[in-house]
Write a structure and sequence with these properties.
The protein is α/β, with parallel strands linked by helices. The protein is built from 13 helices and 9 strands. The longest helix has 18 residues.
């Protein structure tokens, strides 16, 4: 069987809906598989091949309470993350990220003089739209919940004066590295100075861990700017590489997610399961 990543996400989204429909009642592997019109054996093969853990264990990561458990067990204090060092590079397991930020003056030009190339790619979380300048990825959107037209309009509206060119080949190596967690990805942050400070803080949250909006605000020296931090997190144009899905409310509630809450839950579940699978 060919493993199509978009198909995997579609099944996972249905699994989330099936779990939610039970309103907190525990569900067995057989019950979830039945809700998806699958045999338990097929469901087990599908998810074991994709995420590396069994569905019985995996569906625990999809529940609404999973974020609260992560906040309790996998909370990251960003002040200590600085000790690891974030001097322009970051290693996220097998993915090596190099990044640079656009100057405030260049950002103010709304993309004028920039050529941004783009293409659509398959990902573990459904179709993904990747955009890049000559310096690296500047946009990465998931469209499974919003639809492709909305994702395209959202990203192009951020830099209205840029020249957009469909060129998947030019973007492919960085997009593949970002979406599949292998190799080297370059990232070109295009945002206001405050936004970039918030996005840098997000990049210090390790995969499989989470932090809070208030912790992020404190880490950038603006402890009272929690609302502004939340806005900057929501305006992050590069999903996954700048991991805004790892930001939660203090209560453990998910908060919002620009590309749809089912994808945020799927991202957290995927990362949490893989982190546990890697643990000794």
């Amino acid at each position: 069987m060919k493993h199509d990543h978009s198909y995997h996400y579609a099944v996972m989204a249905r699994a989330i809906a099936a779990i939610d429909a039970r309103q907190g009642e525990p569900a067995s592997l057989t019950q979830i598989a039945s809700a998806l019109d699958m045999s338990p054996a097929h469901f087990q093969r599908l998810f074991s091949a994709w995420v590396g853990v069994s569905p019985k264990r995996y569906h625990q990561y999809l529940t609404l309470d999973h974020a609260r458990h992560m906040l309790r067990d996998r909370f990251t204090t960003l002040e200590t993350a600085d000790a690891v060092g974030l001097s322009g590079t970051s290693r996220l397991h097998d993915l090596f990220v190099r990044w640079e930020a656009m100057t405030p003056g260049a950002f103010a030009k709304a993309g004028a003089g920039l050529t941004i190339r783009w293409g659509w790619f398959d990902s573990p979380f459904g179709p993904a739209l990747a955009m890049a300048t000559a310096r690296g990825l500047c946009g990465l959107a998931f469209s499974a919940e919003t639809g492709p037209d909305a994702a395209m309009s959202d990203l192009t509206a951020r830099w209205p004066d840029a020249n957009f060119v469909e060129d998947p080949t030019a973007v492919a190596s960085w997009a593949h590295a970002a979406l599949h967690g292998m190799g080297e990805a370059r990232l070109h942050m295009i945002g206001a100075p405050f936004q970039i400070k918030v996005w840098e803080a997000l990049m210090r949250i390790p995969s499989g861990h989470v932090s809070t909006y208030s912790e992020i605000a404190a880490s950038i020296g603006s402890p009272s700017a929690v609302r502004a931090v939340g806005t900057a997190v929501g305006r992050n144009p590069v999903s996954l590489l700048i991991p805004c899905h790892r930001a939660l409310r203090k209560s453990g509630a998910l908060g919002g997610y620009h590309w749809g809450l089912p994808i945020k839950r799927a991202l957290l579940a995927h990362e949490g399961a893989r982190a546990d699978a890697r643990a000794p």
